[in-house]
Amino acid sequence: MVLKFILIQNRQGKTRLAKWYSPYSDSEKLKLKGDVHRLVASRDQKFQSNFVEFKESQVIYRRYAGLFFCVCVDEIDNELYYLEAIHLFVEVLDTYFRNVCELDLVFNFYKVYTILDEVFLAGEIEETSKQVILRRLEELDRLE
Questions:
Q1: Global confidence as pTM
Q2: What are the contacts of 87-94 at 24+ separation with CB within 8 A?
Q3: Domain span at residue 14?
Q4: Distance in angstroms (rounded) separating the CA atoms of residues 55 and 86
């Protein structure tokens, strides 16, 4: 179970966070961002699942307000596992930023990447406890 990439994009397709765990060229990354956005933005939230086949992989995504949180994994990986990991990541962001919004991601991108690395590390889910992650973030904030 290894992630290929994580993308957070708004409804207009602007990428707010991208983390790549597989080697892609810059042109491939640009194409993947556009392909993933077209794929998830066009789906009906009420009648279609949050799992989509994508090339030889699958994209698992969740929409929170105006943002799409997407992960790309192998076809055989457990979709629900990653759906829960996305939700955990969003819960941690929401608690840390006290009701997170898109501007928090834009202006505090370095913190968002730190939080991402506390949840996902080297393409694998690192920690599943919200309290443990928030405690680590508090310790890092004290060090600054």
A1: 0.93
A2: 87/62, 88/119, 88/128, 88/130, 89/115, 89/116, 89/119, 89/120, 90/62, 90/64, 91/130, 92/118, 92/119, 92/130, 92/133, 92/134, 92/137
A3: 5-143
A4: 21
| Sign of the CA dihedral with 15 first, then 16, 21, and 26 last | positive
Q: What's the length of the chain?
A: 144
pLDDT per residue as tens digits for the range 24-51: 999 999 999 999 999 999 988 777 889 9
Beta partners for 52?
Answer: 59
The two structure tokens encoding residue 11: 């409804």
| CATH (domain of 105) | 3.30.450.60
